Amino acid sequence: MTSWTPDLARGGGPIYRRLAEEIERAIAAGQLSAGHKLPPQRDLAYDLGITIGTVGRAYALARERGLVSGEVGRGTYVRAREEAAPAATLSFGGTRSMVVSPGRLRMDSTAAPDVGQGPVIEALSRRVVADNPVGVASYTRTLPDHWQEAGSRWLAAAGWRPAPESVVPTLGGHAAVMAAIGAVTAPGERIALEALTYAPVARGAHLIGRRVVTVALGPGGMDAADFERLCRQQHPKLAFIVASLHNPTLAVMDEAERRAIAETARRHDVWIVEDNVYGTLLSDPPVPIAALAPERTFHVGSLSKAVAAGVRGGWVSCPPHLAPRVLTAHKMLSGGLPFLLAELAAALVLSGEAAAIRSRVVAEIGARVALARSHLAGLDFTARDAAPFVWLRLPEPWLSGTFRTAAAAEGVLIDDEDEFKPARTETVHHRARIALTVPHARAELAEGLATIRRLTDNAVAGYDSYS
User: Where in 261-382 does DSSP place strands (E)?
Assistant: First the structure.
């Protein structure tokens, strides 16, 4: 038996949970190593001035988390655990090249297609600079009401609209997500993500010291039953969820599943970050999770998929009283919001131009999806009329990474499934995501789709690498 006395003054919540967290902290710090016997429940209860039942609940929770094992008559022992994977199981940039050689056709990016945004953005930018010569020349040190009003309007969906004072403008959607994570979690705490998702969030979380755990996918995205299991066993502090037009599966979670996840998060005191960057493309969106659990949900949106990615316009609505905290976290993590971009994003929304551009973008996406359906007819893939990508199941005997390499050799850049895995997994989907919006013209897209089809119709034996 090792000499160990936990400090229950740290942390918050029920005493049994704090004690379980102290056990986990001591194991991580090496104070309790594999094989060490924990103090008998009666002795520890006496030393800490708590009930035996409280210690029993804490030990049971530690067993659920896989930290200890126990046998009647023998006691409770620290389990031998596999070494944690390095913080960066993938490179910080994922599987994509940060710099793309000229002549490559980018079908790995889902930025809004060109539908004539340039002249509109040029005119509004000129107006912003003319009306705010001091603002564009200095740092942003204020939060104008109309920036928050613009975010409130853009984030509104299905009859729900966040209060303007709850909204923080951000340098795009990714920065909004990271600001929320930074504001309400601490290094070492767990962040739950779907087993396939927008994985840069996992990489960013690793980079600032958070631990990533994954939840199984169901037909609508994050599986509510597995989320309940994870919360009971691993007690994440926050869950990142893409509930509408899930990336990369294109699932749209139904209201019952959203309510189940909201209730689970409420019972286990888990924050939610709801990424609605793709959801803004839907003409009849479901009720946001933020409307079902407003006290714990951060709702994120941006202009990147529906208007113009280069504007870097984003917003996050926050639970009550947390907007100032998120604003500070955003500044610390991103360096702050440029006045020019924030004012331009607000002008696009408040003038009605963003909504008008979104309508044209959705129409263009629909035409490109029709093109993809034509070229990929007969293959197994998922597509939606408003979504800027398709999720393609690769025919035998193609492997996802091999297919991505073969496409790159033909000058077409796509994403294999590993780009969307936030952690190591044994699950293999044999899928690739084919983005449809970045090629400037539909003719270019057609060429890329023809290449994809030609590769799928040929066995792997028809491809080899001599590099």
Answer: 271-275, 297-302, 313-317, 381-382
387-432 residue pLDDT tens: 999 999 999 999 999 999 999 999 999 999 999 999 988 889 999 9
Number of domains composing the chain: 3
Q: Are residues 399 and 338 in the same domain?
A: no
For residue 223, the one-letter residue type is D
321 and 418 fall within a common domain: no
Is residue 71 within 8 A of residue 38, CB to CB? The reply is no
The CATH number of whichever domain residue 434 belongs to comes to 3.90.1150.10
Q: Which domain, by its residues, includes 445?
A: 105-114+355-462
**Whole-number Å distance between alpha carbons of 455 and 410:** 9
| β-bridge mates for residue 302, sequence order | 314
Measured CA to CA in angstroms, residue 428 lies from 21, 185, 391, 432 at distances of 33, 31, 14, 11
| Residue 303 and residue 217 share a domain | yes
CATH of the domain at 338: 3.40.640.10
- Strand partners for 238: 191, 271
Q: Does the pLDDT at position 173 exceed 90?
A: yes
% pLDDT > 70, the chain: 92
* Ramachandran area for residue 176 (φ above 0: left; ψ -120 to 50: alpha; else beta): alpha
**In which element (H, E) is residue 238 found?**
strand 238-241
